Amino acid sequence: MTRQYHSPPLGDVTVRDTFWLPRLKTNYLVSLDHQYEHLQANGSLDNFRRVVGEAGGDFEGPPFIDANVYKWVEAASYVLATDDMPTLREKANTVLSLIEQAQADDGYLFTYFMLGDNSGRWSNVTMMHELYCAGHLIEAAVAHYQALDDERLLRVARDLADHIDERFGPDKLDKIPGHEEIELALVRLYRVTDEERYLDLAGYFIDRRGRDPSPLAAELPELERLIERDSFSKEQKESGWSVVGYQDTLRDESGAYDGLWAQDHKPVRDQERVEGHAVRAGNLYAAVAAYLQEVDDDELFTAVERLWQNMVTRRMYVTGGIGSSPESESFTADYDLPNDTAFAETCASASAIFWSHNMFELTGNGEYVDVLERILYNALLSGVSLDGTRYCYSNPLQTDDEYHRNEWFYVACCPPNLSRVLASLGKYIYARSESELLLNLYVSSTVETTLSGTDITVEQTTGYPWDGDVVVELSLDDSTEFALGFRIPGWAERWDITVDSESVSAEPTDGYVTIEREWHDGDHIEVSLAMEPNAVVAHPEVESDRAQAALRRGPLVYCLEDIDNTEPVQHLILSHPDSLSARYTESILNGMTVLEGRASLQDLQEWQDMLYRSLESVTESATDFTAIPYYARNNRESTSMTVWMRLA
Length: 648
What we know:
Elements: E1 13-15, H1 20-41, H2 44-52, H3 66-82, H4 86-102, H5 111-114, H6 130-148, H7 152-167, H8 182-193, H9 196-208, H10 215-228, H11 234-238, H12 243-249, H13 278-292, H14 298-314, H15 346-363, H16 366-380, E2 398-399, H17 414-423, H18 426-429, E3 430-432, E4 436-439, E5 445-451, E6 454-462, E7 469-476, E8 480-487, E9 495-499, E10 502-503, E11 512-519, E12 524-529, E13 534-536, E14 548-553, E15 556-561, E16 573-585, E17 592-602, E18 620-629, E19 641-642, E20 644-647
Helix pairs in contact: 1-3, 1-17, 2-4, 3-4, 3-6, 3-17, 6-7, 6-8, 8-9, 8-13, 9-13, 13-14, 13-15, 15-16
């Protein structure tokens, strides 16, 4: 299959949405500045300065800390594609200069080895993540080039990619990355350079994975020697990034190599379930979907579609979060979705967005955008505080009053990763082919593009996600025939579309109502999606959610926090789901639509000094409750929170 749809360039999309624009401004005015200061303070930038002789001291941070710098550059580049921000541009140029100067003459770039024993280069890609960091550098370079038509970083990326291509592949170094990322980056680099060898190398990394003998298994003894030689600092060993723990994830109980955690247990073509570390898995399968947009391979497509279906029907939280194990940051088993220990890493949400978007571009099927939207509005957005300065590495669905957000992390992959998704929001709103434009996300915005050889401007205005009404206006010089497709989200039970006040009777195909006709300047389309609050239940095999319900309205999943309720939220029983109503209020967290309803509550005083009692003697009283969108959780004082409510 080849790619059916493309995103318009970011510079052609202007977001003016009352929901998203404040968040985008917070991202580039607060979060990116905040992250830059942390990159300064935690040694990320100083590691590059040390390489070029502008700073002294030893390497700081985990070996793969360079990736955080590259992700920050990528996010900044997306912002600069649409907004002229001199201060941000100056900071980005400072970082670009450091990267340029630090690169070795042969193209190699990984500050951990450049500051230490150079003989370590490419000796253990299972753990040291040189290829992972290279992937993020390449993605940043592609983003910077496309945003600003500036080839400086692209030249660095090409030199590094050439260095890698000279060393890895058939009849060369037989190695694959421990942490997938470079596969997707190489596809993106191919698209801006037309160098087939980059695409071929991406295909090699994808297809070599899971085959016997495993290059990752071959590197385990070297990892053990690194540990024995005390090659890592005390801080590195005691951090959340545990060298010994990493080794354990790649061995089974008998001590033999087990590639499941690294998606190295079977060739991708033979894999049946999404397994292992959730971020790694998402990155790999996003790369497979992107690769398939350039290369026809029905067997590989069948596999990646099978894996995506397994994820969304058996291994994804109602919020769109993935990866349930806090110990290994990984998928576990079908329907194993505990709420209080859910890891649901913010980075995993980003990778699932990339995967879903690439699957959509490949197929044109709206079900992928449905999942992308759910992740975006819930699992991903919950990873950053409303003020843009505090983050969540994990995103559980039930917490006590000890839970809190963090300003930064030793392994700080999530903050810049989240920022690069938010900064690139414009590329997810629309999709186009030669004669068709799809409205994927309902976000007040304007896109300027060309369809059927005619320049057109499409402007949509909406109060989404608080309401489901969308108004679309067309501007074009000459009347032209083309198609407009409007996504009907899977959650929408009722919908209506009118063109110049005339109702459209077409049924959705692959999630879209597509209207093909001759369009005129000033044509006016209205989309109305019924947006009612409802309670949803989980598959009976999800043990953690049995006899419970989650509240949802439109694309938003809701949660309850003690701070909004007179009774502990863990004790509330959803006995009157028909009482649910939605109300917009400015008094909670700068304005949002909350859900309200009636719940039952057992009188805890009746249980005093009792552990068990007869069912007949239990009495309940009624109380009101308030629920807020899940993304807004933990933005006030520490308080207990739950997504799932007990059912009567």
